[in-house]
Amino acid sequence: QVQLVESGGGLVPPGGSLRLSCAASGSIVSIYAMAWYRQAPGKQRELVAAITSGGNTDYEDSVKGRFIISRDNAKNTVYLQMSSLKSEDTAVYYCNADLKYVASSISYRRVHWGQGTQVTVSS
Fold first, then answer.
1. What integer pLDDT is reported at residue 1 of this predicted model?
2. Which of 22, 68, 102, 112 is the 20 to 30 Å CA partner of 28?
3. At residue 8, what are phi and psi to the nearest 5 degrees?
4. What Å distances lie between residue 79 and 22, 23, 106, 119, 122, CA to CA?
């Protein structure tokens, strides 16, 4: 089956940078879009950035100009380069992928979620 594994989270001071990675594995036929969501303590999960198979991107307003989403199609991997980090960026970041995969000779298309990686911005 399909699995999404995030990495790259950690503790950074305000103004610092982090690069998150998410690798999709399994019997994947194609990935139509990948995205990063985040959920801060006591708050609802929100979309941070998304990228389609054609390379179109979308960003949450508060991260525009600071975060960059990219993907390596050959590696089924999406990245989130985060710069000028603020305390309000502190959250668990989740990878998301709309993909087509094969299981028992049957193809499926659905959204998959990663387990999340913690990003903490603090002095």
1. 82
2. 68
3. 105, -5
4. 6, 9, 29, 14, 22
